[in-house]
Design brief:
The protein is α/β, with parallel strands linked by helices. The chain has helices at about 20-35, 40-50, 65-75, 95-100, 115-120, 140-155, 165-170, 180-195, 200-205; strands at about 55-60, 80-85, 105-110, 130, 155-160, 210-220, 225-230. The chain has a single domain (about 10-230), classed as Rossmann fold.
């Protein structure tokens, strides 16, 4: 069955950072990421994307703890990474920044809207820009310009998003079973409707595709991934 893509505002994005419903929903998100094996999916794709990155940016990074788990797995192979954790909410604690420091990664938080960040002049390329459960917040027409601006700024781009299909939709209706609150239960369903399938993200990637190798694929039971690597086979 073909599920048309529809993007609707998610409640978590509009709650204050310290709202107890938001705090609880972000804890749900950490559990959902564990359940979806996001860390393993992302760590594998990141290693396919780049060999020895120095500069990584995560968009919509939330509290940064997903990336901390990935960094812990990769830090021996990838020492001394400079990581920017961008989110429009100020969610990354000093404790999380110190935990990155302890494994030899220099992490900084950047509290900004992604559009604001992408509107800044390009100052050199990052080795990797990535995101988890973030790109589905945007309509296709916004994504076209956003992906073009990202392509100018990086040598590799990887995202892990909800897969828009019946099984993930059924799963999203069951997140209450792992104790998710009302905000998460509603947002989970919305995020699957706003998710991706097939080669939709490849079609939105900027046209000069000869300079890029693209891979777009389902991952695990619920995720949909897109990887773009400049001038190399992903
Ligand atoms: C569903 S959460 C995912 C957080 C994190 N990536 C994870 O997997 O735990 C989406 C995040 O995107 C952020 N966000 C939404 N719209 C944004 C925008 N326009 N610019 C920057 N951050 C945004 C929200 O504040 C939120 O932290």
């Amino acid at each position: 069955m073909n599920l048309p893509r529809s993007v609707h505002p998610e409640t978590l994005d509009h709650l204050a950072e310290c709202d107890p419903l938001a705090v609880r929903s972000r804890a749900d998100l950490r559990r959902i990421n564990r359940f979806m094996r996001t860390r393993a999916i992302m760590a594998r794709a990141m290693q396919d994307a780049v060999a020895a990155p120095r500069r990584i940016v995560e968009l919509g990074a939330g509290d940064g703890t997903l990336m901390l788990g990935i960094a812990r797995a990769l830090a021996r192979r990838w020492p001394g990474v400079h990581l920017t954790l961008l989110d429009r909410q100020d969610l990354v604690t000093q404790q999380t920044l110190d935990a990155f420091d302890a494994i030899g990664w220099q992490a900084e938080r950047c509290v900004a809207d992604v559009a604001e960040w992408l509107a800044q002049p390009v100052r050199g390329r990052h080795d990797l820009i990535l995101a988890n459960l973030f790109i589905h917040h945007f309509e296709d027409r916004q994504l076209t310009s956003m992906l073009a601006a990202i392509a100018e700024r990086t040598n590799a781009f990887f995202i892990c998003e909800p897969r828009r299909a019946l099984l993930p939709l059924a799963g999203s209706r069951l997140v209450g079973l792992i104790g998710a609150n009302a905000v998460t239960r509603e947002d989970a369903v919305l995020s699957v409707h706003a998710g991706f399938t097939g080669k939709e993200l490849s079609a939105l990637w900027p046209r000069q595709q000869h300079a890029w190798r693209l891979a777009e694929y389902p991952a695990g039971l619920f995720s949909h991934c897109f990887l773009a690597v400049r001038g190399a086979a992903p």
